[in-house]
Amino acid sequence: MVNKIEQDHQRFRQIVRGKLRKDLRRFISRGEFIGKEGDRFVSIPVHDIDIPTFRYGDNSGGVGMGPGEEGDSAGGGKAAGGDQPGKHILEVDISLEELADILGEELQLPRIEPRGEHKITTIRDKYSGIRSTGPASLRHFKRSYREALKRQIALGAYDPANPVIVPIKRDLRFRSWNEVRKPQSNALIVYMMDVSGSMGDEQKELVRLEAFWIDTWLRRNYEGIESRYIVHDVVASEVDRATFFSVREDGGTRISSAFTKCHELLEQHYDPGDWNIYLFHFSDGDNSSESDNRHCVQILEKDLLPIANMFGYVQVASPYGSGTFINVLREAFGGEPTPGSPESRSKVVTSRVNNRDDIFESLRTLFKAGK
């Protein structure tokens, strides 16, 4: 019975997985997540999956057995029923790891190979043996009963017609463990966003959706993830996640302020020998001046790109922004690197997100190289 239930559960999970893959582009672009997002699970509404259920109650009635004459409208004639089928929505909890796997399969993303040496190690317990003493919580029931069976057979006390096996103290077996040191790949994600007057709520919603999927994919590839958030107009400051997606500022834009703040953050807290560093900047492409554009390129070349795995720039459409900064980056770092050119040239990845439907291809652009 247990195996049958497990088979049915696995089959149901395969059906759900198929529906998620089929509608993944819609989930990415529309952000159709119901309410809760925990540490490891997210709830997603899946349409058109009916779960068979038993209904208990009085079965003496049925369709057409209520009061009224043939031809009367249901509900006392006050309103006509609809003629379209309803949508059955099932809220499914799915782990972020499985969601990331579906994303990687659908976008054909290569697995990321962490760069550098794994200098950080974690210590965990690995249950690898059996011993005769230990706490009750680690009792190995199967091995304990096996020892009891062996003892009863050896003593001639085992009766196949009445196979009662009663373990005694010396039969008990317990799981044992060893401490295992495991190299750990840590990653830092620094999200930077322009919050000047030209970045409205619609633009920030695009950033929120893109950042969620960026975070989901990177967490699938690394054991340890830290996220830091920087907002800027003409000056930059570090904020928490909630503030990052809700703050509303006004005024002009100086993108170099965010890059400078990011460099200060990395210098103070993150050794590039221990961390795989991912930098993402979101903006509508407006900047204060050409001189600041040149300053941004200098900071990237000198301070950020030499220590980062990648720098992703995502430009969202805004009716108020000039949209020129993406061209600045493409002129400075675009194209295939040539022999003798700095390795950092290939670390800059740019994409445009004019609306929600562009997020799917933007994610493919950012991670198709598996950096």
Describe the structure.
The chain has about 375 residues and is an alpha/beta fold. It has 10 helices and 10 strands. Helix content is about 35%, strand content about 20%. A hairpin with a 3-residue loop joins β6 and β7. The longest helix is centred in the N-terminal third of the chain and has 21 residues.
Short description:
The protein is α/β, with parallel strands linked by helices and 371 residues long.
What portion of the residues fall into strands of 2 or more residues? 15-25%
Number of helices: 10
Along the chain, the helix and strand elements come as HHEEHEHEEHEEHHEHEHEH
CATH topology of the largest domain: Rossmann fold
Runs in which pLDDT lies below 50 for 5 or more consecutive residues are 336-341
CATH superfamily membership of the largest domain: von Willebrand factor, type A domain
The CATH C-level class name of the largest domain:
Alpha Beta
Percent of residues in helices comes to 25-40%
Overall outline? elongated
Mean pLDDT across residues:
76
What does the largest sheet look like? 6 strands, mixed
Architecture of the largest domain, CATH level 2? 3-Layer(aba) Sandwich
Order of the strands making up the biggest sheet: 7-6-5-8-9-10
Domain module tally: 3
What would you report as the Rg, rounded to the nearest angstrom? 29 Å
The number of distinct β-strands equals: 10
End-to-end distance: 46 Å
Would you tell me the structural class of the helices and strands?
alpha/beta
